[in-house]
Fold this protein.
Amino acid sequence: DRNNALWFSTYLHGHLCRLDLETRKVEDFGQITEFGSFKFVKDRLGNMLISTRSGTVFHINVDNFKITDLGVLARETEKNPNWRGHRILAHHAAMPDGRILLGLHWSDRLYAFDPETLKFERFGDFRPASFIQSAPWMMQKGLAFDSKGILWQATLCPINVEVGFMAHLFRWDIMGVKEPEYVGLLGTPDRVT
């Protein structure tokens, strides 16, 4: 962080810790997750978010070490059967308006976080309606905005052992409030991954 420290969580016990790189001392803030949070997300103000596997999101103020429970993200039940146990923050991208777009591993929705208000906005399903009708469950695998403010998103779709994994690419003018588009499979001509 901007105060010359590293933040980390322990996998088995879910503790939040801070390592001061100058004094080399570790401060343990106690258990905040069931076990094994996936990642930290740094906002444009230099503070961080971390989540539990069941979806509770915490905001960490890196200056005063205040940890704020922001509630459960992806609270609404989803059809994806993996949703309940894997609502951890997985991927993020800086939005053109200064918010952070957040994806959860097994959620079909995206969320925007405003670091000034500490509030979330839920966006709809990132998949086009025509695609949803035949699509199997997908894991979100990456988010990025291009220079025109268009969101590009990759997903991983485990089919079965014979078929393997399929990676899909979507684009969405989320800032222009347009519908998401399916671009196609990711891979090379001889091997779609």
About this structure: The radius of gyration is 18 Å. The first helix runs from residue 129 to 132. The chain has a mean pLDDT of 83. The chain is about 0% helix and 50% strand.
